[in-house]
Amino acid sequence: MRLVYFFVFIICAGFAQKKDTTSLRGKTIQLGLDAYFNKDTILLQKSTQKLFEIYNTTKDSLALAKHYHYKALYHRIKFSTDSAYYYYHESKNISKNLKDSVQVGRRLLSIAVLQRQAKDFLGSEISSIEALQYLEPIKAYSYLESVYNSLGLASEELNQQKEAVNYYNKAYEVSKLNNEIEVKEKGYLRVFNNLGLLYQREKKHKKAIKYFKKGLVFDSIKIKYPQQYVLLLENLAYSNFSLEKHKDVLSQYEEVLKIRDSLKDYRELSTTHINICLYYKEKKNVKQARFHAEKALIYAKQTHNNKRWLDALEELSQLSTGKKAIKYLEEHIELNDSLIQKERTQKNQFAKIRYETAKKEEENSFLKIENDKKQDEIVRHKQQIVIGWLVAVAGFLSLGLSILFFVLRRRKLLYQAQLQKAQAREQERKQIAKSLHDEVAGDLRLLHRKLENSQLFEEAQKLDAVKENVRQLSHQLSSVSFKKVGFKDQIINLITDYFEPTFKITVKGLHEHDWLQVNSAIKRLLYLSIRESIQNSKKHAKATKFTIAFSIHKKNVFLDVSDNGIGFDTAVSKKGIGLHNLQERVEELNGTLSISSTVGAGTKTHIQIPLNV
Q1: Segment (H or E) for 304
Q2: Average of pLDDT values for 371-382?
Q3: Do 140 and 236 belong together in one domain?
Q4: Which residue, 384, 359, 468, 480, is CA-closest to 429?
Q5: Residue 536 placed within a domain
C-alpha cells in the first residue's frame, strides 16, 4: 500500500511541476508582450532570456518559439529589419514543427509587414498568401482580417487597384465574423481607412472622404480607439485640403498632433507635421511651414520613418535659401540613394533567408529519406544470398560501364572547357563593368559637381546624361552570382525591378524545376538573356506585356520570352551589341538562339542550352 501511495505522490508531483512550468511560461510571455507595447527594451530582453532558460530546462519548444519571436520584436524596436526578419522566420519554423497554425500565420503576417516596409511588395504578397493557407482552415478571423488588409496594401503598391479593393472587401466581410466587438470594430476602421487612402492616392478625394467619415461616425471612436481616430481624421483633413476646403483643416491637424503626442506615437507625428507644413506652405506662411518641416525631420530621424525623412528634406530645401537650401537638397539626394541601395540589399537578404530556410527543410527531408533507404538496404542485404553467376554478369556490365564512363568523361571535359571559356569572358565583362562604374562614373561625378559649382548648369546636365549612360552600360556588362541568393529569387527580384503598371511581366515554370542541379553558368546565361530581352522590350519595342517561360526536357534547358511590342522585320534589322553578346554567350555553352518577329505583332526569343554536366 505504501508503494502505491509513493507512485501516486510521484505522478502528482510531476503534474504539479508541469503546471508550474506552464504558468511561468505564460507569465513570462505576457510580461514580454507588455514590454514590447511599452517599448521597454530592457524588460523585453529579460523576458526573452527567461524564455530561453525555460526551454533549456524543460525542452519546451513553445518557449523557444516565443524566445525567437521576442528577439524579432526587440529588433523591430531597434529598427533592425534584417535581424527581425530572420528571427520571425526562426519562430515560424518551430511553430510549423509544433503544427501551431495560428502562430505560423501570425509570424508570416509580421514577415509580410516587414517586406512591405522594405518595398519588397511581391515578397509581402507571397508571405501573406502563405499566411492565409494556415489561418483560413482554422477560421482565425481576427488575424485573417489583418492578412487581407496586408494583401490590399501590397496590391496597391503593385498598382493592382482592383485586386486591392477586393482584398479590403474580404477584410470587411471577415471582420463581421469576429465575436469580439473590439476586434470587429478595429477591423472595420482599418478597412475604411485603407479604402479611403486608396481613392485618395487616385486623387478621388470626394470618394475617399465618404470612407473616412464612415469610420469617424463610430460610437465613442475618439475614446475607445484613439489611434484609428487620428488616422481617419488626418486623412479626412488631407483630402479636404486637396479639395481646397481649408475651413477646419488646421484645427483637425492640431487635434491629431495633440492626441499623437499624448500617445507617444512619434513615427506618425512626422506625418502630421509634414501635412501642417504643406498647409502653411499653401498659405504662403514660410516661417510656420519651415518650423513644422524641421519638426517632421526630427521625428522621422528618431523613428527611421524614411519616407517622411525624405519629404521633410525636400520641403526644407524648397523653404530655405542659399547654402541651407543646397545642404538640405544634398542630404535628400544622398539619403534617397542610400535608401535605394538599402532596399535592394534588404530584398536580397530576405531572399537569402527564404532560400536558407527552404534549403534546411529540404535537407532535413532528404536526410530522413536517406535514413529510411539505408535501413531498407540493411534489411535487404541480410535477406539476399550471393549467387555465383552474378559475378560473370557483373564483369560484362563493368566492361560496358567502363567504355561508357570514358565516353561520358571525354564529353564532360569538353563541356567543362567550354564553361571555363565562358567564365573567363564573364570575368572580363565584370572587370570592365567595375572599371566603368567605379572609375569612369566616379570621375564624371566629380567633374559634374565642379561644373555645377562653376554654375555651368547646361554643361553639367549634359555630363550627367553621359554619366547615366556609363552607369547603364556598366550594369548591362555586370554579371550575377547565385551563391548567396538563389536563381528563383534573383529572377523574382529582376521581375520586381522592371514590373510597372504599363509593363506587366508574367513567368511560367520557375518553381517547377530544381535549379540547384543546374550549372551556374547556364543560370547566369538565362538571367542575362531575360534582362537583355526585358530592356529591349521596354526601350525599343514599346511593349506592355512580357512573358517568360522555363522548361527542362531531355537534358536541355529551354527559355522562351515574348512581348506584345511593335516588332521588327528580321530580314532587314541587324542585331545590336546586346543581342550580339547574347548570341556569343549562347554559343559558348553549345546552345542555340532563335528570334522571330513580325512588325506590329511582337517578338519571340527561343533559347536552348544542353545540360552536359
Answers
A1: none
A2: 67
A3: yes
A4: 480
A5: yes
CB under 8 Å to 56, separation ≥6 — which residues? none
Print the domain residue range for 539. Answer: 485-613
Burial of 102 (0-12, 13-18, 19+ CB in 10 A): middle
Which three cell numbers mark 92? Answer: 515560424
Domain harbouring 75, CATH code: 1.25.40.10
Query: Is residue 85 a contact partner of residue 353, using CB atoms and an 8 Å limit?
Result: yes
**532 and 570 together in one domain:** yes
What is the C-alpha separation between 490 and 486, in angstroms, rounded? 6
Tell me: pLDDT of 6 over 50. no
Nearest to 613 by CA among 517, 523, 527, 529: 517
Residue that is last in its domain, among 478, 497, 516: 478
| Alpha-carbon 352 to chain mean position | 11
The label of the residue with cell 513567368 reads: 507
Q: Do 209 and 108 have their domain in common?
A: yes
Q: Which domain-ending residue is among 301, 317, 344?
A: 344
Contact 469, 441 (CB under 8 A): no
Residue with cell 517599448: 39
Sheet-wide strand order for 592-597: 504-508, 545-553, 556-563, 603-610, 592-597
**551 pLDDT exceeds 90?**
yes
Joined together, the cell numbers standing for residue 114 give 516587414
Establish if 609 belongs to a structural domain.
yes
